[in-house]
Write a structure and sequence with these properties.
Elements: E1 3-7, E2 18-26, E3 29-32, H1 38-41, H2 46-52, E4 62-65, E5 75-83, H3 93-106, E6 112-116, H4 122-135, E7 153-157, H5 163-188, H6 196-210, E8 213-217, H7 219-225, H8 228-234, E9 242-248, E10 256-267, H9 287-301, E11 307-317, E12 329-331, E13 337-339, H10 347-360, E14 365-370, H11 374-380, E15 385-389, H12 392-405, E16 409-411, E17 429-430, H13 438-447, E18 456-460, E19 466-467, E20 478-479, H14 484-495
Parallel strand pairs: 1-7, 2-5, 2-6, 6-7, 10-11, 10-14, 13-17, 14-18, 15-16
Antiparallel strand pairs: 2-3, 4-5, 8-9, 9-11, 12-13, 15-18, 19-20
Helix pairs in contact: 3-4, 4-5, 5-9, 6-9, 8-10, 9-14, 12-14
Bound molecules: ligand BES, manganese (II) ion (MN) and zinc ion.
Manganese (II) ion binds next to loops.
Length: 536
């Protein structure tokens, strides 16, 4: 993996193969973004040079430029940062991440690159470092030729007075990048090597390495506990299912979050088999579980003062003589029954067991993450994930976490009108309902398995979890590590006193529910609001 360090050497004298500078867009043309005295390195010639080479400052733009006249120093790569902000500290963190990622990716094969980007604050340093490390990711585990190696070494140039803060920021970025890249590796690993048992073994190994507690329920333990959803989905496969619990606990934690991930290591559709064209990249269907694992490990490694429990519902959805049949009725963990009308709607079945199980421990909030429906991809495309929930305050908190982390997310409703489409003639509920609004119907199904009063959000990451196209910014082709940064940001917020639930003090009704900021955030240590104990 690429190593990354901080240096206070000015751009003019840094030893590197490439010097990376930022270019911002203004109405009057491209301007060099501030960064480690790059102007001095170029004797004031940089604006002329940028214009001569046709730079525009557009995001994603990269231009190779000659070094300053008369020098034998590094070659120069100019990366676009988008519109110039009003002040030098105003660069958007995600724009910095993407530009740094673009640079690291473009310069793959290079030895040492120096990033002279606008790093006026620790937050900006963290963004540049994270973007560079995410952008240099490659998945070569199955390539036996000699692929271009990632950039060997990245130096982030910072001002002297920021050194200590910058080093701490880089340590955080390193952990986060390693965990996002762990999720990517898991998603990219094909299903012949990554199946429930091997996935669980990888969690156990990671837990040991980072001193995080892991419990694995195998098929026998799942049967003994009555986990009909996970067992039902897994029964058609030669690879038996698993439920994995991984927990980060902190002595000063006042909040416990539960993250639940869909971990279908391969989704063929089962007896409701997917057609050719829809099943080639179904190794991706464990992206939610991968994100949950990575987020819990990141929370532990960053020592966040919050308890975070991850639940990974792992199964392989296959057709066979022992497979679940359309029309079968499953008895889920907790006792409720589900008529399986479509075996391809399997994610909600494994999640139902895991949600009930997670809720038993009375967390302050539950977030599930899943590549749940094709329908949501038609609505939101492949760059934006959906956030649903029955508690507007908590849903908006998750959306704010996504925004702060630089991930694109959008709220989707849970319309009561669609709930009736899941009514079953023989069981408590069916796993298949209205086709129109299928992503919302899936959310309504999951809601049935969350106890009333527990703040809950459902993330449908079916689009952005896997990039079927070419790489861009810090996003590679293949597994993207979608939702890891959002979950970690949510945990970090909880660690600093953001309460997940409705405020303990009564607030006046706002009619249609709270927009972000309507409810005041109670101070750290407030009593939890009374919680309903019955399922709805
Ligand atoms: N894993 C799929 C959803 C999916 C499709 C994720 C494409 C990523 C890319 C899920 O299990 C599924 O098959 N959903 C069905 C549900 C339907 C049968 C109710 C769907 O969306 O078509
Ligand atoms: Mn499916
Ligand atoms: Zn699936």
């Amino acid at each position: 993996m690429t190593t990354l360090t901080v240096t206070t050497t000015p751009a003019a004298s840094v030893a590197a193969d490439w010097l990376v500078i930022g270019v911002a867009r203004t109405p009057n043309g491209p301007v060099p973004a501030p960064g480690a005295a790059t102007d001095a390195a170029f004797d004031g010639e940089l604006p002329t040079l940028l214009t001569a080479f046709g730079a525009t400052g557009a995001p994603g733009e990269t231009l190779r430029l000659p070094g300053p006249a008369g020098t034998t120093g590094p070659l120069v790569l100019a990366v676009g940062l988008g519109p110039a902000p009003a002040d030098r500290e105003g660069y958007d963190a995600e724009a910095l991440r993407r530009a740094a990622g673009e640079a690291a990716r473009t310069l793959a094969g290079a030895g040492r690159i120096a990033l002279a980007l606008p790093t006026g604050t620790a937050e900006a340093v963290e963004a540049v470092a994270l973007g560079a490390l995410l952008g240099s990711y490659t998945f070569t585990a199955y390539v036996t030729t000699h692929p271009t190696p990632p950039v060997r070494e990245v130096s982030v140039l910072v001002d002297d007075d920021l050194r200590t803060d910058a080093e701490a920021a880089v340590r955080r970025a390193r952990v986060l990048a390693q965990e996002v890249n762990r999720a990517r590796d898991l998603v990219n690993t094909p299903a012949n090597d990554l199946y429930p048992e091997s996935f669980a073994a990888a969690v156990v190994a990671a837990g040991q390495e980072h001193d995080v507690a892991v419990q694995v329920l195998d098929e026998h333990a799942l049967a003994a506990g009555g986990h009909g959803g996970i067992l039902g989905v897994g029964q058609g496969s030669a690879r038996p299912p698993r439920l994995v619990r991984i927990a980060h606990t902190h002595p000063r934690a006042t909040t416990t979050l539960a993250f639940v991930g869909k971990g279908i290591t391969y989704d063929s559709g089962g007896i409701s088999l997917k057609p050719v064209g829809a099943n080639e990249i179904m190794k991706r269907d464990m992206s939610g579980a991968a994100a949950v694992l990575a987020a819990v490990l990141a929370a532990a490694r960053l020592d966040l003062a919050v308890n975070v429990t991850g639940w990974l519902a792992l199964a392989e959805n296959m057709p066979s003589g022992s497979a679940l049949r359309p029309g079968d009725v499953l008895r889920m963990y907790g006792g409720r029954t589900v008529e399986v009308l479509n075996t391809d709607a399997e994610g909600r079945l494994v999640l139902a067991d895991a949600l009930v199980r997670a809720a038993e421990e009375r967390p302050d909030a539950i977030v599930d993450v899943a590549t749940l429906t094709a329908a949501i991809r038609f609505g939101l495309g492949d760059h934006v994930f959906a956030v649903m929930g029955d508690d507007d305050t908590f849903r908006d908190r998750v959306l704010a976490a996504a925004r702060d982390a630089g991930e694109r997310a959008w709220p989707m409703p849970l319309p009561e009108e669609l709930r009736g489409s899941l009514d079953s003639r023989v069981a408590d509920i069916a796993n298949y309902g209205a086709r129109m609004g299928g992503g919302l119907v899936a959310g309504l199904f999951l809601r049935e398995f969350v106890p009333a009063g527990t703040p809950w959000a459902h993330l449908d990451i079916a689009g952005p979890a896997f990039n079927e196209g070419g790489p861009h910014g810090h996003t590679p082709s293949g597994g993207t590590g979608c939702a890891v940064r959002t979950l970690v940001r949510l945990a970090a917020g909880a660690a600093t006193g953001e309460r997940p639930g409705p405020p303990a003090t009564a607030v006046p009704a706002t009619g249609t529910g709270g927009a972000a900021g309507v409810h005041p955030v109670p101070p750290l240590g407030d009593a939890h609001p009374a919680r309903g104990t019955e399922d709805r």
